[in-house]
Amino acid sequence: MLYGKILAMKEYLKNLKENRDFKATEILRSSLNDSGVNIKEINKNLLRDISLIQNRTRGPLFELMAEVIIGNVFGVKDFKKQNVYKTPYGKRRVDLFIAETGVAIEVKSGYGRSRKFIREQIKKDKYILTHEPDVKQIVWVCFRGATKPLIALLNKNGIQYCDIEYDRLDTQSEEIKKTIIRA
Hints:
five-stranded mixed sheet
């Protein structure tokens, strides 16, 4: 039953991604064609920025998916959502928190990279791990995987990494049973 739900979610996300990419390209193309600008001459940064905006809009969907997947796979029924902690580096909002086990979960919908914003989150997470008695563990769930430097940085700071890699799995493959969640 869970395997079927995960396949259905993965297929839905695959279609959503394809449609989103198509719509973004069409909007850009129609806007620029009306202005007389050739889309092939557009700087890659503009397309990258569009992709970043798209990634941010799907965050709540992935938080819900993480809640469903983790809840079903690990039998968790109660999550606190958007738990906020104060640190000397600023506030840190964690996507999901399992109070009974003390596990804070950060959900990343895009491919995880070691960028300034991410490094700041990790610094805050390390502080939370050492100063918040209710937090026993922090887990980052990356739906599209992460770079080796980011994984190394998470490990160095005592933060667990879990990838789901929904867009790299063949929806027809039996391998999904082995690779859907790797910690």
